[in-house]
């Protein structure tokens, strides 16, 4: 229980003559959320795959706590359609024996409680991503490793799911290593941010800032001078699956 | 009459039961031609057994296990398609067998016997071996069903979650080699390949879960064996091919029934 | 290396004819079917350099059909004038299949002698100096075969029963020569396996007619014949390809003796 | 040239007894960008697949202008690793003969100009998405159909690419039908927004709003009361691939 | 010696050239056992030709085309794995063939197609047919290479971009059926299958582009034919198996050379 769950030290990884990771070090403690950010091709997914043991580093040490149970959501996962599988079946496809109630609750928490009996091959992109996340949570792992877990999830869902993730380390006494591009949503729930770009270029506790001016400064980093924003005067509310509850009958905009 | 038919039926049913869960894993992993390749490799087994003065079945079992291990290794290393690797191994082992036989002439090797082995030649005394094999294979598959399915679904995900994917892959291929070489003797490679592949394909549209697919495939396999034997008796057609065709009819029926619900 | 044969029975006959002069070379290794066969360069070379290629004919060795043209230098055994040629028979009722040919012609001693003489004549034409020796060899072959065969024929004629059942119907030349009767076969030569109904019919027939002799080739049929046979029936293994034999006469008489033992007291 | 590029009228689509699309109508004109938004499982991808002809509607009419050339970026595309392919080769794998310069330019525009000779199987998620987009643009189609084209693209990239997309209809005289969850970025460049949820629940021209208060109202729609924002006091700038230009040496946060 | 060798070499080279681009498409589409299945189907072709009193090669070609069309249809409809569907068709057609000859016992048919036709039996007069076939096949493949590769990459993407994927799939399978039945006569079913599958697998690690892979596969195929023939002359081994084994050696060499650069 003492010591970090995961400790990467001085990781190097090269392919085809290009150094993709350059002396990257990283630790994840129990109870904390560490988020990897960085531009496309920065080596985030590579680093994550080294962390979970799918790739071997060229140099450096990857130490996982002995007996560490990992829950993993890869950046992409395609299934062969010849294998029939329902969402519920997929959730149960793991070492631990599960109560039906747990499965239902995990699905409900990621907003896909009504998909239990649907085939995994017929899910929409966002639904599948939510199911993957639910399954990883259900395993009650010591370490959750999430590679862009919110890809294709709608905005409402992203916000709900980030809020859920923020509770997870305390609830299950686990650590989370996450990759994400959703800076504005990530920062609220993250304990430590590591900005990767081949090497670790900056790392630290995000300041807790709640009001919008700070948020704009983040956008300012991306040079979003010409950014125009759409105002959606919404006249109804959606829940994730389905019913629209119009407050005024006509379509507004 | 019944004394000839019932051992054939019992043997066919045992083969079908053994084949159902293995066949599902085979189809999901795109190794449908595994049985076919094993049949090709038997020639090398027969040749080697002559060279080393061991019984023929020993040589054949040895080469079957060799094929399983080679395939497990190749699948791990290269990310080449499994069917192409299987085809490569199959051609290579058959060629090696043919060359071995040329340096080693004298023994009549009947490739066709392996291809078309005969269910009707089964006697009650053959059944215990088959039944024992079925119990071992089904028991192992049952005990490891979840990790087997998970690592079939995605080997990388399974590996991260602590499933020993490489060992499972080797085990699965060894079980398959065992099942096929066991069944090949009584049923012939054509029939056992068909029993492995066709029932899972036939029931795929009806199944929503892996386990359901394996159970339905077992049912379909038993139905195909029964139907084929009946047809063979009614129209006096060869047993093996009749069973294959009755399995194909089941496949077609499964295609026609549910018209729209894919997945 | 001037005489090339394709399969063992032809090699044995040719060996008898060329005894003391030359050594015929056999192309197909024993035990390999033409399907699994692939020419080696030395085979090809031998075919090319051979003065005489003796083969059963295109019905049996289709892979040679394109390679050797009929004509001087080749001896198509099944095309020999005067050869006894029999059509194949249906497995169900033993009726002949029109237009077909059972290629196991060497199992008839008369045919074997005819083949031996044809080889001798062909060799004699090419090697006039040795013509007498070839002819003498062929006559000697004919003589020893007849001497070995006649007592066998008589012994078998004296047996009470002459009915047998075969797995593949591959022995009809032997059968005709020994005056046997085929009560039925499980499958004809080109079929793979019998149907269930036929198998049961055969079992019934064996039982009803009290047939005690069942015959199969070395590689196949053991299990199915066992099903048809009664507990006390004999199953004889008759290698129609004479693969274990050292001489043709020895090999053929061995087959005859096996048949005799199988038909039993 | 007259009439809409694409016209869907009264499209119905049901599977397993559930009606997934319910009398959906939609048109895309040359020169305009139409964006489909809506929660996960709303039927956006299904509608898009019907629009490009990959699925047949149960009822309703799908009319495409005769001879319409479509450039398509599906929501997910996995390639078999047995087929070797470089990015450049993938770009050229289309009907039109292409000049090398065009390929290079298209890649540069989506920020992946240096990937021309890399294998498509070794790309990162965001790199692959950019390549897909570049290829669709390179085809100079009459209609661009993009299903969540920015999935996994980093924030800087998203903004640049949306700005690029905004120019496309005028540049190539084509129409764009796009699915997206990035409301805040989409709205700036979109001519018409269709909010889908099984049926079309609202549809209209987005108001052009440039300042942040409007943006917050959009977030308000998602009930983002507790949303905290992270301030990233950045001490260096990143370009998409690689070099960090530090303005003060130390890692800031 | 040379007058024996050169027609064999020329025939082998023609087969290898014809096989290279088709083989790549085959491997990419996971249809590696297509040649094998076709060989199984020939039995039915022979049986049917007797029934309808047409020449044997007509029946065989007919069944080969039938297999191609059935497979194209099944691949379109069901989303079942291609290798399993191939295995189903192969077992079914072989069984149908076995039953057909049961009702047709007069037929002088081979139960098994030849594994190795005989390259050494080739005479210069056989070459024009092979060469003609190669020109037709390579010409068609060359003309349609890009759409063929694109629809192999992803049929849905290709379809949206206006590629007639279904027609291309049928065409590809028909070309394959033509090439295999042409080459099967001279080279045997095992050799042509090996020439289709092994060279592409061998050169995969060296290739970065589809076209390069096809060209390298052609080179590897020619090298395998040449090496196999040379080995066959040196050690007097059967020609067909020697070529297969030399192709496998190339595959192994390709595995060992580039250790780290996957993809
Ligand atoms: N096997 C490989 N061979 C060669 N290059 C590779 C390999 N795997 C990854 N790369 C390259 O390494 C770099 C890092 O890839 P990685 O997937 O880790 O990026 P990432 O940070 O996850 O990006 P994204 O945000 O787009 O997901 C990319 O440029 C990619 O092209
Ligand atoms: N073949 C199918 N059979 C049954 N249900 C299906 C099928 N295809 C899609 N669905 C269901 O239809 C709904 C719409 O799917 P679609 O992929 O169009 O959603 P989407 O709007 O694109 O969602 P996302 O934002 O997550 O990508 C989903 O609930 C999905 O599960
Ligand atoms: Mg990544
Ligand atoms: Mg979608
Ligand atoms: Zn930074």
Topology readout:
The complex is a heteropentamer, with two copies of chain A (253 residues), two copies of chain B (263 residues) and one copy of chain C (265 residues).
Chain A: E1 6-15, E2 18-28, E3 33-37, H1 44-52, E4 59-64, E5 70-73, H2 87-92, H3 100-109, H4 125-138, E6 143-147, H5 155-172, E7 175-179, H6 183-189, E8 192-197, E9 199-204, E10 207-209, H7 212-221, E11 236-238, E12 244-246
Parallel strand pairs in A: 3-7, 3-8, 5-6, 6-7
Antiparallel strand pairs in A: 1-2, 1-4, 8-9, 11-12
Chain B: H1 2-28, H2 34-51, H3 56-77, H4 82-102, H5 111-116, H6 127-143, H7 145-153, H8 155-160, H9 165-203, H10 210-235, H11 239-256
Chain C: E1 3-5, H1 8-17, E2 25-26, H2 41-49, E3 52-55, H3 62-65, E4 74-76, H4 109-126, H5 131-157, E5 163-168, H6 172-177, E6 181-187, H7 196-209, E7 213-216, H8 222-228, E8 234-237, H9 248-263
Parallel strand pairs in C: 1-2, 1-3, 3-4, 5-6, 5-7, 7-8
Helix pairs in contact in C: 1-4, 4-5, 5-9
The complex binds adenosine-5'-triphosphate (ATP) (2 copies), magnesium ion (2 copies) and zinc ion.
One adenosine-5'-triphosphate sits between chains A (15-16, 20, 38, 40-46, 75) and D (122-127, 152).
Q: Taking strands numbered 1, 2, ... along the chain, how are they ordered across the largest sheet of chain A?
A: 5-6-7-3-8-9
The backbone outline of chain A, from C-alpha atoms, is: globular
Number of domains of chain A: 2
Query: What level of helicity do the residues of chain A show?
Result: 25-40%
- Going by helix content, strand content and strand pairing, the class of chain A is alpha/beta
- The CATH class of the largest domain in chain A: Alpha Beta
Look at the helices and sheets of chain C and give the structural class: alpha/beta
- Beta-strand content of chain C: 5-15%
User: Residue ranges of chain A: pLDDT <50 for 5 or more in a row?
Assistant: 208-253
* Apparent shape of chain C: globular
Average pLDDT rating of chain A? 80
Our Rg estimate of chain C from Cα atoms comes to 19 Å
Give unreliable regions of chain C as ranges: none
Task: Please tally the β strands of chain A and state the result.
Answer: 12
Mean pLDDT of chain C: 87
Please name the two chains that share the biggest interface, counting residues whose Cβ lies under 8 Å from a Cβ on the partner chain. Answer: A-D, 87 and 87 residues
> Count of DSSP E strands of chain C?
8
